[in-house]
Design goal:
Strand order of the largest sheet: 10-12-13-16-15-14
Number of helices: 3
Helix content: under 10%
Radius of gyration: 17 Å
Number of strands: 17
Shape: globular
Largest sheet: 6 strands, antiparallel, barrel
Mean pLDDT: 82
Oligomer: single chain
Strand content: 25-35%
Bound molecules: 2-acetamido-2-deoxy-beta-D-glucopyranose
Order of helices and strands: HEEEEEEEEEEEEHEEEEHE
Length: 262
């Protein structure tokens, strides 16, 4: 997830004890064919996965703003169509341009959380769609509470560590009310956030920053921040429903989005 925010939270909340025990973050292995819109953002210098994203058209990736904010885009490459978080198994795309939400608050605001954490990447060339790589469907209506959702990615499997999963993993979570989330997390939670319930068995690190929150195969959220890691605190996602206009505007009209009702 967002380690800059995580660090801020860490100090703001003095929750260092929460992170002492190493723990394998659960979930199960997933097949990219079931989530063909999932993409991996990698750092070409280190050749490491660092954020997730969702294919929303042949040329556009939906992700979190903090994955790209103040970064050198020329050393980021997007990989699609693979179960694996290592480059040799999949095709990479370079970034042509990035649209970060104009009101994104940045990630370095201790105790303040993170707002408008959403960005759209335009790729340098079109993704050829097939069963392993195609656009996801964005849910056009708002998310209900107490429903089940899925998180997925190649996120950390041990925390604290730098051990990312080699294979795609998924876990199921429950959407909770923002008021309940606020009670548990003690950080500002706004209408444009969605929270999933904390669980001590899995979560959090698994949902890579920038990766999707999914309900019935539709994208409803973008992993934004959390208190590490599967310690029973809610995970916080950007509520995609609040940004449909931003998404429509950021996407070149030549490329078709699929925004459908639940
Ligand atoms: C991807 O992972 C799934 C689940 O483990 C597996 O069934 C499938 O064969 C894998 N695909 C490739 C191309 O490795
Ligand atoms: C890539 O990794 C290098 C070396 O750790 C780091 O300096 C750089 O900021 C990273 N870039 C991105 C875009 O993550
Ligand atoms: C959106 O996705 C649904 C489900 O796969 C499909 O039936 C529909 O045709 C798609 N619409 C567009 C505009 O691509």
């Amino acid at each position: 997830m967002n380690f800059y925010v995580l660090l801020s939270l860490y100090f703001a909340l003095n929750t260092s004890i929460l992170c002492k025990r190493q723990k394998i973050i659960g979930g199960t292995v997933a097949d990219i064919k079931d989530f063909p819109f999932l993409s991996s953002l990698r750092n070409l210098t280190t050749n490491k996965h660092f954020c997730g994203g969702s294919i929303i058209t042949k040329r556009h990736i939906l992700t979190a703003a903090h994955c790209l904010f103040e970064k050198d885009y020329s050393i980021i490459r997007i990989y699609v169509g693979s179960n694996y978080s290592v480059s040799i198994y999949s095709e990479g795309y370079d970034i042509e341009s990035v649209r970060i939400h104009p009101h994104f608050t940045g990630y370095n605001s201790p105790g303040k959380g993170s707002r408008h954490d959403i960005a759209i990447i335009t790729l340098n060339k079109e993704i050829e769609f097939n069963v392993h790589q195609k656009n996801g469907i964005i849910q056009a209506d708002d998310v209900k509470v107490e429903v089940n959702a899925e998180i997925l990615g190649w996120g950390l499997i041990i925390f604290p560590s730098k051990v990312y999963s080699m294979v795609l993993r998924k876990a199921s979570v429950k959407i909770i009310k923002n008021t309940k989330c606020l009670e548990k997390i003690h950080l500002p939670i706004y209408d444009e956030h969605i929270c999933s319930d904390g669980n001590t068995k899995f979560g959090v690190c698994l949902a890579d920053s920038g990766g999707p929150l999914i309900i019935e195969d539709k994208i409803v959220g973008i992993a934004s921040f959390c208190i590490p890691c599967a310690r029973g605190f809610p995970d916080v996602f950007t509520r995609v429903y609040n940004y449909l206009n931003f998404i429509r505007t950021a996407v070149n009209a030549n490329y078709q989005l699929n925004i459908s009702v639940a």
